[in-house]
Structure formats: C-alpha cells, structure tokens
Amino acid sequence: MDHRCYTCLVKSFDKLLESHPFPEGTKETHMKDFLRFLGAENGKIMPADISRRNHQKIREMLQTDDPYREIKIQSNNGLLAQYDHWKAKVNQSDDPFETALRLAIGGNIIDYAANPEFDVDETFDKVLNSDFAINHSQLFREKLEKADTVLYLGDNAGEIVMDKLFLETLNHPGVVYAVRGRPVINDVTMEDAQSVGIDRYARIISNGNDAPSTLLHLVSEEFMDVYRQADVIISKGQGNLEGLLGNREKSIFYLLMIKCQLIGNKLGVRKGDFVVAYNHLLEN
C-alpha cells in the first residue's frame, strides 16, 4: 500500500456505491464501515485484496453474483464482431506475432475499474503505431519458443478476445489460461473465456479466487500446481501485475497498458504507456 492508494480506493468504492440505486443512508453506512476498515488494516493488505472485499460487499448488497455480467457480454460480443478484421491485419502483417501481441496489449484498455471511459479503436491504432515503453518482446518470443508449459493470466472481458487472437497466432500446444474463480468487476471468468472460444487454443482453469488480481496466498491448489510447472507466465493487465510485482521465483512477462502513475513510477514509465516487461529485468 502507498498513501495514494487510500485516496484511489475510497474514490473507487464511492463510485461503486453511486453507480447503484442504494438508499443514501445505506451508502453512508457502508462508506463509514469501509473507512474504519482502511484505518485498521495498517497498510498490510494489498489494494487488490481490498478491492476484492469491496466487490464482495456490492454483490451482497445487490443480491447478485455478477453485477457486470451484461457489460462483459457486450464487451466480448463487440470485440468478437471485429475479430475477423483484426485477424486479417495480423495475417497480413510482416510480423504476425508482434501485431497480435500489440493488439492483446491494446485490449487491456477495457477496464471498468481503473478506466471506465475508454476508446478501443483509438487505443488499437495507438498501440500498433507506438514504441513500447519497456520492450522485452524479443526475449518474450524466445522464451515462449523454448517453453513446454505457458501459464497465461487473463484479465478483463472484451480484452480476452484479443488474448484469443494472440493465442491463435502463437499456436503453442502447452498454454493454460487462468481465469477468476468467481465474478469480480469485468474480470474474466470461465464462462467468459469459453464464450469467446479461448478453449480452442488453451486449457482453461480457475484460479479459485475472486480478487481482481493474482494473489498467490489466496489461489487454489490446482492453480498453484500449474504455476509451479509453468516455464513462462504471461501476466495480462495491471491487476495481475500488482499481485505479482517483485516476484523473482518464476519467469513472468507483464503485458499491459499503464493505468496508474504509481505503477508507472515503479516501472519507470508513464500512465498510458504500453509495456512488455520481463520480471528479472526490472529493478523492483
């Protein structure tokens, strides 16, 4: 936790409360409860774990397991409608691997927590015509070619359609695609991944948890078995990076668009930058 995280978490929880028709008294009660919780945790809990707690509270208040289900379906269908267009772009490019990689990273813009207002087409155009702020993509390609098992950590609905295109282009026989154990924000679940056809290019598993991240102290043993066996781990998005940043025990490549300047500072880049970063080459 950084002191700036507290402000962000309070704003995020307030936005969550305001986005649903709760009575004002209920909102006040839950915000006070949240502020007491933040004051008592003493910086020992990761932001993603706090976000997990907040979304558990919202699901309980709404009495629904997946408040973002319709938004996720719309995001997936919107990108699926463009799939053939982007697949043709990949196939016609001089380097299909890099083009598909760039589109997968561009898809990371679809995020209803960190960045609810986004322009997908503008982001795809930018990522196809920009330099990566951190570019370990050649090493990424080399590591993938030598890997027997690749663990791909999925992030958000919509974005996963571009993950599918990258996996189809990669055509690796040993990919395991991990999804959240139950719905949280617009993060990918088993239902989402299967609905867009990722199961045609990877074995899909649940990480057994509902944090919008990969928190190794909370994931399932099934996930940990694959994690231990994986030769390369692909960490999509900022949420997964937050849970794994500083991890040195595995070969991890972080693929994302930077949505928070605090994370940008940790990596030495700016908000809005695109990154392909190998964990063993980062200073943190």
Automatic annotation (TrEMBL):
Q: Which residues form the Damage-control phosphatase ARMT1-like metal-binding domain?
A: 2-273
Q: Which organism is it from?
A: Prolixibacter bellariivorans
What is this organism's lineage?
A: Bacteria, Pseudomonadati, Bacteroidota, Bacteroidia, Marinilabiliales
What SUPFAM superfamilies does this protein's entry cite? AF1104-like
Q: What is the name listed in the Swiss-Prot or TrEMBL entry for this protein?
A: Damage-control phosphatase ARMT1-like metal-binding domain-containing protein
